[in-house]
Amino acid sequence: MRRAGESRTLVLLTIIAAMLLSLIPMPEPLSEFKPYWVALVMIYWTLETRGMIGLGLAFLIGLTLDVLSGSLMGLHALSLVVMVFLVQRFRPRLRFFPPWQQVLGVLGLLVNDKIILIWILALLGEPMPTWEYWLAPVVGMALWPWIFLLLDRIRARQRQHKS
Fold first, then answer.
1. Distance CA 71, CA 82 (A)
2. What's the rounded mean pLDDT across residues 119-146?
3. Which residue range is the domain that position 154 belongs to?
4. Where does residue 53 rank: exposed (0-12), middle (13-18), buried (19+ CB within 10 A)?
5. In this structure, what CATH number is given to the domain that contains residue 77?
6. CA quadruple 57, 46, 159, 147: dihedral positive or negative?
7. DSSP result, 72-111
8. Exposed, middle or buried: residue 137 (CB in 10 Å: 0-12, 13-18, 19+)?
């Protein structure tokens, strides 16, 4: 029982760290390169911990991110719920892909997220973003192996300390 509680704490701490990274402002020329940190961390935990990240938790994390970032209420909530649903649905395949295929799967998830955001922008009558809008998923894809290794190392270290 204690072990599950400690791993929930680790999941929560890494999600909070990803939210803080999302809130750090970047210089204007680099702002389009900013990856969706929370989504990358959520993808990792959904892949690696069966049942710990559910749709309700994804919705709450998304609402929290909406409030913290001052974005349209429900924007991140919708995108994270869809992303977690897709990862849960294809988890058996994604988990056992070789790393290069897993990177492509993560790219697909991040592009799908951007498509959802474009759909919402279109519903609001906002102007369509420029081509630079698509740079963040590519950066997220490039960072995925490093994020995966970092979180895996943190998780392994936590397991070692418990033993």
1. 18
2. 94
3. 2-162
4. buried
5. 1.10.1760
6. negative
7. -TTHHHHHHHHHHHHHHHTHHHHHTS-HHHHHHHHHHHHH
8. buried
Q: How many domains does the chain have?
A: 1
Instruction: Give residue 50's pLDDT.
Output: 85
Does residue 2 register a pLDDT over 50?
Answer: no
What is the per-residue pLDDT across 64-78, written as a single tens digit (0 to 9) for each?
A: 999 999 989 999 999
The single residue listed with the structure tokens 């592009």 is 111
Amino acid making up residue 158: Q
Instruction: Output the pTM of the full model.
Output: 0.92
